[in-house]
Amino acid sequence: MIDRIKEYLEQVNAFESNDVQAIEDFRVSYAGKKGILNSLFASFREVPADEKKAFGQELNILKAAVADKVKELQSQQLSSNGGSARISDPTRTPFPIQTGNRHPLSVVKNRIIDIFTQIGFTISEGPEIEDDWHNFTALNLPEYHPARDMQDTFFIQTDPDILLRTHTSSVQVRYMEKNQPPIRTISPGRVFRNEAISSRAHCIFHQVEGLYIAKNVSFADLKQTLQYFTESLFGNSKIRLRPSYFPFTEPSAEVDIYWGLETETDYRITKGTGWLEIMGCGMVDPNVLENCGIDPNEYSGFAFGMGIERIAMLLYQISDIRLFFENDVRFLKQFKATL
Ligand code: PHE
């Protein structure tokens, strides 16, 4: 009996391999559930009493030799493979994987898209480098119209007809030129204005604009849609529409949501009024419909537009718009996307 163990011991000591599978097979054949060690331990009972002690000692030596051998071969194998060998050890601590974060602007944009697509709006996109027609003229802003000054425009120097879009209303012009009502679409995208950069203004920012055109669309439809939207996004349904002016809508309004005056911050951000402006809106001007090939006698519609930065600043209480563009991971890490 003891001789058999000694034979095994010699075999174990002589075993060499650099192959993961062969090492594993070796380990299983000795130390596995049905392996040699277990069967030797099971035969312990049959060993004559006076040999039991020596048998036990030899068996333990064999067991230790198997463990040492496996360990030695595995580490040899690992280092010869530059450490990349796959050793199936499910108890090993996994390497931490650094996960990225969605940018807060994307989080908010996706949320807005989700809210509008749920009520049947499609998503439309268009070029960031636009021509005068789609950014201005078709939107009832002919050349020399004073309202062009409302949007400080970056022109491409060599061609005054080509510019960086100042709003995504240009996308809606393109959409109307190609589609007849009913139209329900939102256009998220990046826009550009020549502003002095400050905590509240940036030359590049993002908008979501919306357009709804069908038969008999009324101002009440507009208000109800915005009510649904603000309730979904802010959980706060109290809004008011203040008369305003945009060349492409008539009548036009600015939308405020009721923010409240509970804290000092509320006072500061609402300038003591409790109300916060979040977007512009109005009934699409009949001239715009006509410019885009839609009959204003048959159809009417509404449009609205908002800045994503502004909404994100309100939702997350961010006080400086520049934080969105610095891409400091300590800032970005704070936002968790549910979408
Ligand atoms: N295009 C406007 C802007 O950029 C927003 C707006 C869109 C206003 C639609 C009214 C209707 O400020």
Can you describe this structure?
With 339 residues, the chain is of the alpha+beta class. Helices cover 40% and strands 21% of the residues. The chain folds into two domains: 2-80, no CATH class; 104-332, BirA Bifunctional Protein, domain 2, CATH 3.30.930.10. Helix 1 packs parallel to helix 4 (52-80), helix 2 (20-31) runs antiparallel to helix 4 and helix 5 crosses helix 11. The chain is elongated, with a radius of gyration of 36 Å. The structure holds phenylalanine.
Main traits of this protein?
about 350 residues; alpha+beta; BirA Bifunctional Protein, domain 2; seven-stranded mixed sheet; elongated; binds phenylalanine
CATH class of the largest domain: Alpha Beta
Supply the number of helical segments. Answer: 13
Order of helices and strands: HHHHHEEHEEHEEHEEHEHEHHH
CATH superfamily of the largest domain, by name, is Bira Bifunctional Protein, Domain 2
Unreliable segments (pLDDT under 50, ≥5 consecutive)? none
CATH topology of the largest domain: BirA Bifunctional Protein, domain 2
Question: Helix coverage percent of residues?
Answer: 25-40%
Report the biggest beta sheet as strand number plus sense, adding barrel if it closes: 7 strands, mixed
CATH architecture of the largest domain: 2-Layer Sandwich
Query: How many DSSP-defined strands?
Result: 10
For the residues shown, what is the average pLDDT? 90
Name every ligand kind in the structure: phenylalanine
